[in-house]
Specification:
By secondary structure, the chain is mostly beta strands. The chain contains three helices and 13 strands, in the order E-E-E-H-E-E-E-E-E-E-E-H-E-H-E-E. Strand 6 and strand 7 (92-95) form a beta hairpin. The longest helix is centred in the C-terminal third of the chain and has 5 residues, at 135-139. It is globular, with a radius of gyration of 17 Å. It starts with 7 loop residues before the first strand and ends with a strand.
Length: 174
C-alpha cells in the first residue's frame, strides 16, 4: 500500500554514523519500480553532500559497482558486475553473483566514468544476475529527481551500436 504523506524514515549515514530523518515525498508501487523518494529533513541535506545522477549510454560489459549492507556487513560490502543488457521493462541486467539482499536502493556507479547511473533493484545470485533501475527511470518517478543527461563524444556516429551482439567499433564478434 502507498505510504502516508507524513511517513518518516530514520537513517544512519554509514561513513560517519550520523543519524538523520527523511520524509517520503514520492512513491512507486511494487510491480512498477518499487521505489520511495525521500526528502532529507535532518540534518540539513547540504551537510551530507550530494551526488549527481546520470543518464548515460552503458554499452555491454561496462563494469559497475554498488555498496550494499547485507546481513553481517555493517560497514558495507562492495559488489562488482558488468552490464549484460537492457530488459524490455527498462531495467538493466548485470552479470554478477555478488549482489545479495541488502543492496536494494544502493547507488550503482559506472567505474569508467565514476558516475551514478542507477540504483540496485533486486538480484538473483543463483543465476548470477542483478537488476538496476536506470537514473532516467527514476526521474520519471518524481519531479524532485534531477538527472544529468550525457551523450558520449562519438554518440552521433555510434548511436544504436552499443547493444549489438558484436562490437562493430573493434570488429570483435561475441
Amino acid at each position: 500500500s502507498r505510504p502516508l504523506p507524513e511517513t518518516k524514515v530514520l537513517f544512519v549515514q554509514p561513513a560517519t554514523g550520523k543519524r538523520g530523518q527523511a520524509r517520503v515525498i514520492d512513491w512507486s508501487p511494487l510491480g512498477k519500480l518499487d521505489v520511495a523518494v525521500l526528502k532529507i529533513e535532518e540534518p540539513d541535506a547540504s551537510e551530507l553532500g550530494a551526488v549527481n545522477l546520470h543518464d548515460v549510454p552503458l554499452p555491454l560489459n561496462t563494469t559497475v559497482r554498488a555498496l550494499g549492507f547485507p546481513a553481517g556487513y555493517d560497514s558495507g560490502l562492495w559488489a562488482y558486475g558488468t552490464i549484460a543488457g537492457k530488459l524490455p521493462g527498462g531495467l538493466l541486467q548485470l552479470q554478477t553473483s555478488k549482489v545479495l539482499p541488502g543492496f536494494s536502493g544502493a547507488p550503482v556507479q559506472d567505474l569508467a566514468l565514476g558516475r551514478i547511473v542507477g540504483i540496485m533493484a533486486m538480484s538473483d545470485p543463483d543465476h548470477e544476475a542483478a537488476f538496476v533501475i536506470p537514473c532516467a527511470a527514476l526521474q520519471s518517478l518524481s519531479n524532485a529527481i534531477v538527472v544529468v543527461r550525457s551523450i558520449g563524444l562519438f554518440a552521433p556516429l555510434t548511436e544504436g551500436l552499443a547493444n549489438l551482439p558484436s562490437d562493430p567499433l573493434t570488429g570483435v564478434e561475441y
